[in-house]
Amino acid sequence: MKLLIYSHFFAPSIGGVETFAMDLARELTRGRGENGAQGFEVTIVTQIPAPDSENLPEATFQVVRRPGAKKLWQLAGAADRVLLVGPAILPLLFALVQRKRPILTHHGYQSICPNGLLFHLPSHQSCPGHFAAMRFWECVKCNRADSGWT
Asked: Is 78 a residue whose pLDDT tops 70?
C-alpha cells in the first residue's frame, strides 16, 4: 500500500509533530521486503526545506520537500491513502477530490483552546477552560497578551 504522509513540519526541524511523522514512517516501512513481509511504501511531504546535507539515518521512505501544487496533486493521486499530520487544507482537498481516504491526526489543543496551548498567558497558569465555557473574551485577552491585538 502506498501512503502519503503530509507533515508541514519535519526534520531537520525538531518537535513532537516531526518526531511523530518520522517514527510513523519508519515503523510503517520496517520489514519491507524482509522475509516476504509487506511494509507500506511511504512518501513524506513537508514544507520544511532540506538541510545542507540530507541525512536521515535508516530512512526507508522518500521525503519530498516544498512541492508545488501540481507535484502535491500528483503525489496524492499516486497514493492509496493520504495521512495528514495535523490540519492541512490543500492536501486534504486534493485527497478528497481524488477520492482517496484521508486520515487526519491532531496534535494540539486547538479544538478546545484557540492558541493551542491550553495555557492562560495573562495569569501564567493552565487555562481553566474559558473557551469551553464560552468566555471567548478571555481567549481574546489571552492571545493578545502574546501577540498584540491581532
From this structure: yes
